[in-house]
Write a structure and sequence with these properties.
Number of helices: 7
Strand order of the largest sheet: 6-7-8-3-9-10
Number of strands: 10
Oligomer: single chain
Order of helices and strands: EEEHEEHEHHHEHEHEE
């Protein structure tokens, strides 16, 4: 069953950036991470952002996630200009509209797999019973039904990323943002993790924005590849 947060139609623009700029530092030492990026991504579309390190792809993903604010231009998600949202509204955006999968996993070592996956639902205000049931179901979906009560120190790198995927998906966001999700994994484990992720994306008709420098991974996962170079969209 599609997520209740999913875009209602593939014809609708889910993510739009217009002349998006992002700079860091002072005027005299500014680093221009993004230089006027304009793009549309439609509901249910799977897009790969491809480019070398420093091309601006992770910066673009962070702006779509509401983790950072643009220096100029705009980034709109579901017709909402993220630059106009308050900190609390951006936090809600990250809880319910987008799910973020990081390369570095970012699990809490003192919490079990189940507790790590529950955490976004705590902030979303769901009851303990709802949290437990949803976290258990999501961990079962990513193949960790027998590892619910293991801590990160007792899990392999591939299992770490499966927990991270389950945590990103547990609030059923319409949009998944994956920043080099297999960057810390060997090739065999990476292939297994991507299969888990893509099975969910297909099942839930999610919009997927995948940051990678891997041409093969981009071709395997995406309907469309957008290439970035020196902060600009080149194709």
């Amino acid at each position: 069953m599609p997520s209740p947060n999913s875009a209602s139609s593939r014809d609708e623009v889910t993510v739009r950036t217009i002349d998006l700029l992002k700079s860091y530092g002072t005027a005299s030492t500014a680093v221009h991470a993004l230089r006027g990026v304009s793009l549309d991504i439609r509901g249910g579309e799977r897009v790969a952002l491809l480019g070398k390190s420093g091309s601006g792809k992770s910066t673009l993903l962070n702006l779509i996630a509401g983790l950072d604010r643009p220096s100029g231009g705009s980034v709109q998600v579901n017709d909402r200009d993220l630059a106009r949202l308050s900190r609390n509204q951006l936090a809600r955006h990250r809880l319910t509209t987008v799910g973020i999968i990081f390369q570095s996993f970012n699990l809490i070592p003192s919490r079990t797999a189940l507790e790590n996956v529950e955490l976004p639902m705590v902030f979303a205000g769901r009851t303990r019973k709802e949290r437990r049931a949803a976290a258990r179901q999501m961990l079962e979906e990513v193949g960790l039904g027998e590892r619910l009560h293991h801590h990160p120190g007792e899990l392999s790198a591939g299992e770490h990323q499966r927990v991270a995927i389950a945590r990103a998906l547990v609030n059923r966001p319409a949009i998944l943002l994956a920043d080099e999700p297999t960057g810390n994994l060997d090739s065999a484990t990476a292939s297994e993790v991507i299969e888990v992720l893509m099975a969910h994306v297909r099942r839930q008709s999610n919009t997927l924005i995948l940051v990678t420098h891997d041409e093969e991974l981009a071709g395997r996962c995406a309907d469309r590849i957008l290439r970035l170079r020196d902060g600009q969209l080149v194709s």
